[in-house]
Amino acid sequence: MRSVLSLLVLFSFHVRAHEGMWVPTLLKSIEGDMQSAGLKLSAEDIYSINNGSIKDAIVLFGGGCTAEVISREGLILTNHHCGFSAIQEQSSLEHDYLKDGFWARDRSSELKNAGLTATFIIRMEDVTEQVLSKITPEASINEGQRRELVGKLGEIIAKEAVVGTHYQAVVRPFNFGNSYYLIVTETFRDVRLVGAPPSSIGKFGGDTDNWMWPRHNADFSLFRIYAGADNEPAEASEANVPFVPRHSLPISMEGVKEGDFAMIFGFPGSTQRYLSSYAVDYVMNTADPLRIKMRSASLGVIDAAMRGSDKTRIQYADKQSSISNAYKKWIGEVRGLKELRTLERKREQEEVYQLKARELGRSDMEAVLPAMKDLYAQYVPLATARDLFVEMVYYGPEILRFADGFRELTEEHQRLVAENKFTAKAEERIGLLPGYFKDYDVEVDKRVFKALLPIYRASVPPSAQPDILREIDTKFKGDMNAWVDHLYAHSVLGDQSRSTATLGLKPKKYLKVMSNDPAYRASRSFFKTFLEQVRPEHGALSDRIETNMRTYVKGMMDMDPARTFWPDANSTLRLSYGKVEGSLPHDGVVYNAFSTLDGVLEKYVPADVEFDVPQRLLELHAAKDYGEYGVNGTMPVCFTSSLHTTGGNSGSPVLNGRGELIGLNFDRTWESTMSDIQFDPDKCRNICVDARYLLFIIDKFAGAGHLLAEMELVRAAEPTMIQLPIHR
Fold first, then answer.
1. d(CA 477, CA 486)
2. What is the per-residue pLDDT across 605-631, written as a single tens digit (0 to 9) for each?
3. C-alpha span between 89 and 69 (Å, rounded)
4. In 3D, which of 27, 33, 53, 74 has the Cα closest to residue 122?
5. Active-site residue (options: 219, 441, 568, 690)
6. Where do the DSSP E strands lie in 405-470?
7. Least confident of 134-148, 263-277, 566-580
């Protein structure tokens, strides 16, 4: 009886309806299920290496979002928040594209964006056997050796894969190193801003609505990929021409209804479905609460400053967004994990795992969970110190990480002078100062430092306290604010002119000034403590946890050989499918699947930073001037669907069963934020902008109908897959 019960509980690991982020090479194995759910295409139509397919329209946008090609002239669509950094960088008080929006009149008006890339997947190939067959016994028990060996093997495989081409390639681990895939890519480096609605439309609802439902924002922006005359990647140049894609997505004008099949194709960043109970305990009860506390403090400063000044609003718009997004997500994640009893369920599953391992006589499997318990007892203090370092130095006062940019000139001073390279390095640093100080306010930065320092000092383990902080007690009588005031008052790094002047000093004089600079000394103390006292042991324990997780997941796979496991997301191309539907997230609460422009007016608050809307949109609503995009006197805005998504899926296309664009993914409901660890098909919903609202904003609001002219708008329910030849 116990064995049968064990299997039943173990099967709770199984994928439930709509769960899964599927590697495209595995789609053939779930093709029947997808077609039964409403897919009208074949797996080959979605992912092919011999013909143009949907995957050839999917773009890794920059380093962390998804975009999709929507015209045969290289036009790509992504989220407003994914393009936000580029829009902010192009904005100024004279040209406030964040506030007013931007629409290129013609190709010559499209704006170049230094460093922005667009990457396509050429092919993915399972190379597990090629890698695992060469793992030596020594490397199999030493994670560092294993990683080094796998890295060398991966380089060889990747290099062979792209010989004679302009492509790039990498070998990536899946399932904690139980499998490996070769991924061949093509990256374009000339990506130009074409259009973006004002933030009052693209970010309507601001932080208040972030992660919430119903939503009423058109979270989109448009860019264009440019290529050389040969249609291959080229450095940004006026000589470049719009890229001709292998496939572009048609856009459905038919709209969506409750129960319609939907799928999403994109680059989800990270999920943690297979975490042990010890890891979940850390996330729920230590990591998330501490990070929430830190970000709440910094947001209190930044939000107030942005409300008080248009200049500060532009300077800090992108920074505030990156801090706030994860902050609110973590709050929802903790709540969702508690509601689903995730920790208790993990413990129950682990009991069954142990029971089954014992029945099978698998001592290796039986040993991993006790080992994990011991490892996490050692790991949690170090992980806490690491989290605090990241929050303080990378999401806290900017002066600490800015000062780190002077490390080479200061610590490698003697070598640079001897090699006659000091002046060139100093001039290089001077060239970076205008870009940094353009988006920097020293008073805001100081207030952020003061807000975070008490939390940091109270929370970081004693062994990880930077030595510099002892000055607070020895020289400033425990007054943290006085210490921070002194740091900013006596540092040259809070002011562009003083930083420039210091970099222009003779080498010996520079060294004297910088070595005694309080901000530089503080930065080095934070970094040195982390690098010497935290990172080595944290890394060693992480390696040991990784080794055990590989065995743990392999054990799950061995116990259930008939099951196709979907690997945790790792920023590689994945497909999820489900349907358009609302939800019942809490007792007595009903989330309808659709929102309309009427809801925008219900939320509208004139002059409010989050809920104001442009006059033009008010006029269109008052006149019900929705063109062909409206439905029965209403204008669809957003909808929810039961697709499994996470960060990185921002900007992903939501497609119907015929492969037509019906929406643009941009968020999850707050009740879904735990889905990186536990997916609940009854609660988890992703949020999408309705494709018709995008077209309405471009056409009726912005008057940029010339952009629609290059898109394929499908007004009838008919097959639209167009296969274009692939030139290799």
1. 13
2. 999 999 999 999 999 999 999 999 999
3. 23
4. 53
5. 219
6. none
7. 134-148
Q: What are the DSSP calls for 64-89, one per residue?
A: TEEEEE-STT-EEEE-TTTSHHHHHH
Q: Contact at 8 Å (CB) between 576 and 263?
A: yes
- 626, 620 Cβ separation under 8 angstroms: yes
End-to-end CA distance of the chain: 58
Please check whether residue 243 is in contact with residue 550, taking contact to mean a CB–CB distance below 8 angstroms.
Answer: no
Question: Which of the residues 18, 81, 216, 413 is marked catalytic?
Answer: 81
Of 58, 39, 70, give the one whose Cα is nearest residue 262. Answer: 39
**Residue length, the chain?**
728
Q: What is the pLDDT averaged over residues 220-244?
A: 98
- Alpha carbons 287 and 280: distance in angstroms, whole number: 10
> How far, in Å, CA of 316 to CA of 305, rounded?
9
Q: What 8-state DSSP symbol labels residue 685? A: -
SS3 assignment for 367-396:
HHHHHHHHHHHHHHHHHHHHHHHHHHHHCC
Per-residue CA distances from 284 to 276, 280, 335, 569, 667 (Å): 12, 6, 9, 20, 22
Partners of 125 in the β-ladder:
182
Instruction: Write the DSSP string, 476-497.
Output: STT-HHHHHHHHHHH-STTSHH
Amino acid 717: pLDDT: 54
> Is the distance from CB of 468 to CB of 522 less than 8 angstroms?
yes
Query: Does residue 727 carry a pLDDT above 80?
Result: no
pLDDT at 22 over 70: yes
Give residue 53's Cα distance to chain centre. Answer: 25
Answer yes or no: are the C-beta atoms of 687 and 591 closer than 8 Å: no
Tracing tokens 């430092």 back to the chain, one arrives at 449
Task: Answer yes or no: 650 catalytic.
Answer: yes
pLDDT class for 317, splitting at 50, 70, 90? Answer: confident
d(CA 418, CA 2): 74
661/627 Cα distance (integer angstroms): 19
The DSSP secondary-structure symbol of 569 reads P
- The Cα 506–Cα 556 span in angstroms is 63
**Higher model confidence: residue 318 or residue 198?**
198
Cβ 244 vs Cβ 74: under 8 Å: yes
Q: Provide the mean pLDDT of the chain.
A: 94
**Residue 412 has which token pair?**
């490698």
Which H or E run includes 182? Answer: strand 179-188
Task: Retrieve residue 75's tokens.
Answer: 């036009």
CA–CA distance, 119 with 233 (Å, rounded to integer): 10
The tens digit of pLDDT for each residue in 376-430 reads 999 999 999 999 999 999 999 999 999 999 999 999 999 999 999 999 999 999 9
Distance CA 171, CA 179 (A): 10
* Whole-prediction pTM: 0.89
Q: Who contacts 163 (Cβ-Cβ below 8 Å, separation ≥6)?
A: none
Q: CA 23, 24, 26 angle in degrees (round to 5)?
A: 75
Measured distance CA(664)–CA(643) in Å, rounded: 12
- Partners of residue 686 on adjacent β-strands: 641, 668
Give burial (CB, 10 Å; 0-12/13-18/19+) of 560. Answer: middle
Catalytic residue among 650, 652, 672, 675: 650
Backbone φ, ψ for residue 662 (5° rounding): -115, -15
Closest CA to 666 of 646, 641, 687: 687
Q: Is 81 a catalytic residue?
A: yes
pLDDT beyond 80 at 17? no
Residue 523 a catalytic site member:
no
